[in-house]
């Protein structure tokens, strides 16, 4: 019998409160409310094995949201004194110990986790999923992908599990705006590394992105009454804070708007003005 996995077991005994599955040497209870109708001794039943609140092995025909060795995004149902408790589709919530959290999680948060059996034989979740991620993705440069943020590093950038399966990184230079653990992102594959890991960009290819950036700048000019209180010579930090883009991207978009005659730059006032 394999804890934390789906498996087919045989009915060996029927009792008032359910059926026992397994063999004469090893058996587990499937509670009565989970027993399929018309079941008899010798019949096979597909079940998932976990431990109940009394730490006893028990079977269920319910579908868990995660099994041992797999990855899934689960919601935090509650937080207690030993860790967080995740909704994984079963009656007893799944423990995410504090020591297995890469960041502190709160009720309502969603996080990418893996399921494992701890030293005491209990099923637990861990947010330390990097070793579980694969590097054999089918994606190539410029493909659009979806994934879950599972780690954030000031040095390297934002770690993403593409399809909750493949190892990827949004490099620090490509990170714009606030990102957080559990966030679902859509990104473009900027590079496939020799080791198979993916570098991602949340911005589009330059020609298309210039149009999007120009639209964003014009919208902000309109909201501000027809001007921006700084030019393309502003500090990169201010541009990133205001628009979530690099100074280079800002200058490209401003250049496009100037060429289109939609804006003017007043160097004396240090402003970008909407053309009349």
The arrangement of helices and strands along the chain is EEEEEEEEEEEEEEEHEHHEE
In the CATH hierarchy, the third-tier topology of the largest domain is known as: Arc Repressor Mutant, subunit A
Q: What's the CATH class label of the largest domain?
A: Mainly Alpha
Rg over CA atoms: 27 Å
- Output mean pLDDT: 90
CATH superfamily of the largest domain: Winged helix-like DNA-binding domain superfamily/Winged helix DNA-binding domain
Describe the biggest sheet? 5 strands, antiparallel
How far from one another are the termini? 76 Å
Strand content: 35-45%
Biggest sheet strand order reads 3-2-1-4-5
Task: Describe what this molecule looks like in 3D.
By secondary structure, this protein is mainly β. The protein has four domains: 6-60, Nucleic acid-binding proteins (OB fold (Dihydrolipoamide Acetyltransferase, E2P)), CATH 2.40.50; 71-130, OB fold (Dihydrolipoamide Acetyltransferase, E2P); 142-190, Nucleic acid-binding proteins (OB fold (Dihydrolipoamide Acetyltransferase, E2P), Beta Barrel); 206-274, Winged helix-like DNA-binding domain superfamily/Winged helix DNA-binding domain (Arc Repressor Mutant, subunit A, Orthogonal Bundle). The chain has helices spanning 206-223, 236-243, 247-259, and strands at 6-15, 18-22, 27-31, 44-51, 57-60, 71-79, 83-87, 94-97, 110-117, 123-126, 144-153, 157-162, 166-171, 184-192, 198-201, 227-228, 263-266, 271-274. The strands form four sheets. Strands 3-2-1-4-5 form a five-stranded antiparallel sheet, with no helix packed on it. Strands 8-7-6-9-10 form a five-stranded antiparallel sheet, with no helix packed on it. β14 (184-192) and β15 form a beta hairpin. α1 crosses α3. It is elongated. The model has no long low-confidence stretch (mean pLDDT 90).
